[in-house]
Amino acid sequence: MTFRPNLLPMTVGSLPHRDVETAWGLMLTHTPELPSWPQLPRRTFLENMYAQYSERFPGLVLDREQERIWVDREADLSSALEQLYTAYLEEDLSYGAISGDYAAGLAALPGERLGQALAIKGHVTGPVSWGLTVTDRNRRPTLYDEVLADAIARHLKLKALWQEQLLRRFNPNTIMFVDEPYMSSFGSAYVSLGREQVITLMEEVLDGILGLKGVHCCGNTDWSILLSTSIDILSLDAYGYAENLALYPEELSAFLARGGIIAWGIVPNSPEVEQETVSSLVERLEAGMGRLARKGIPLDDLLQGALITPACGLGPRTVVQAERGLALMAGVSAAMRARYFGEETTPTGADPEIR
């Protein structure tokens, strides 16, 4: 799939809604070209981004009452690990199936509407974030266990490939994202991981994905690490960290030269969404792109290789804030496309108040 997004809107994934039909309606209204299946963490703890991809992981304990998942490293995991590795070696993607209880939005894919889209977006939690968040009984991150770290990457790969296989039944073009919020802690005293270990873990999950591959980090990080992987799309919180991206002009130039895409998360996923307008966010986005252009990156390359997104998932926000965020996202996309590509479009459901 060769794809120049030209400032189209796309979401990160989560919404605060509990009703799956309402959530899908919003996705199809605001991102008809590139809909994502909605994660609904307030519907159930099972849709928490770590619990959602935990089914069948060796030794996993799910405590719904305390809303916690952890791995019992004291149990005999040999049989469960053997099952995981057998599925991995035999490419048995059914092992990575995600049930409807864990992902109602994925279970309720609106087939006909998806076939009309340019591509469908899916997502899986990345191995660094999953392995640092999911701990053992003593709250030691599972990623620091060499055997489990390897298992985590293979487990999440099967989740990603099974999911993409499902999406391709409705549309041959897919975008699969690996969400890595914990990469914002890379290099800190709290995360003991090396550069090569991070790249190896991520490449394990990315390998085998047929469509476009993306990674999302909603904080500041060493962007050169993510840009050195095989991703096609880099997604960042451009509302808060666009200036940090300008510290990597050479890596970005190389990324864009090979057809890379930047997903500009210019719409805040914070209460600040209530104060921002389309005009204020367009101004902020142009300032971020301008920093890169002054570093020698052609503005045309940035515009043609740009997606417009929220800074992160909107699941933590109120329903009103989330819906405003979606409208702002679509509004910024339409305003930028009109300004730079001459496309006169009005986003469906646009509220004049946000202009």
Can you put this structure into words, describing what you see?
The chain is α/β, with parallel strands linked by helices. The protein has a single domain (8-354), classed as TIM Barrel. It is built from 13 helices and 10 strands. Strands 1-10-9-8-7-6-4 form a 7-stranded parallel sheet. The chain has a 3-stranded mixed sheet with strand order 2-3-5. Helix 6 (146-167) packs parallel to helix 7 (195-206) and helix 11 packs across helix 13 (319-341).
Key features?
355 residues, TIM Barrel, three-stranded mixed beta sheet, seven-stranded parallel beta sheet, alpha/beta
Overall residue-averaged pLDDT value: 94
Residue runs with pLDDT of under 50 for 5 or more positions: none
Strand content: 5-15%
Q: Give the proportion of residues in helices.
A: 25-40%
Quickly describe the structure.
With 355 residues, the protein is of the alpha/beta class. 40% of the residues lie in helices and 13% in strands. It has one domain: TIM Barrel (Alpha-Beta Barrel), CATH 3.20.20.
Task: Summarize the topology.
Blueprint: E1 8-9, H1 20-30, E2 60-63, E3 68-71, H2 78-89, H3 104-107, H4 111-115, E4 120-125, H5 127-133, E5 135-136, H6 146-167, E6 174-179, H7 195-206, E7 212-217, H8 223-227, E8 233-236, H9 238-245, H10 249-257, E9 261-267, H11 278-294, H12 299-304, E10 306-310, H13 319-341
Parallel strand pairs: 1-10, 3-5, 4-6, 6-7, 7-8, 8-9, 9-10
Antiparallel strand pairs: 2-3
